[in-house]
Amino acid sequence: MGDIRVTVSYPGERPDEEHEGVQKLYKVGANIAAGFAGNVDVGFRMISGMSASLNSSIPADAIITEPSRFLAKWARRARHHWEHTVPVTERQGGCSLLVMAALQPTGPFTRTVAYRLHAPDFNLDEIPPRTARSIGSGADVSEYQATLERLGHDFFELVQFETMYWPFGPAPMIASELSDVIEVVGTPGISPHLHICTVRFGEVEILTNDRQALTPGVESRVMPPVVAGWEQWKAWKLERGLADLVAIAA
Question: Among 165, 173, 175, 178, which residue is least crowded by beta carbons within 10 Å?
Fold first, then answer.
């Protein structure tokens, strides 16, 4: 899951500003999804670079069966890019990536692997199965982390959503729980609007945590327009006169 808020930093004494509307989770392959935190310009280029590298390494109609091997090679490219082509002005905020990939099924459920990568070395930090991990400032909010860990402990209960043929598995339930906590614990830099990603072998789905409220006094939650991709992001900054400023995805 990823929220849509970014923080824009101005030079001098002008305070930072928070803006809604940046999608941070993306499909990069038929069985791989990735999200970013940190400098938004670098994050978008890392995601697009990963997708381009994957698409050039396998046939168009193929699905990569060894995503860990691909990611290990790509991480070296990311390290070189950070060290040699990312301007110093864009290193503010760093760059963190979270990548999840589905393996070829050998039974009723799809096994997955997941990693965190952080600048400057971009080493693959493997996430253990059924374990909650975060990147960005949300990782430091104890209430968010506690909710994810509790849901991790309830993994086998959540699996029932799969066995009962719910179309998107347990992801919407997990997002609903976390959305409630975000609304109660208002944290600067964190948006209540979330994208929710589910990865299977040959299928990557990205939903939102929109809510149609039927209870009096409870507001509906509708995802606002979002910037999705490097070209849209450049246009978004230019329209707002922010082209030369630093934006951080928390």
Answer: 165
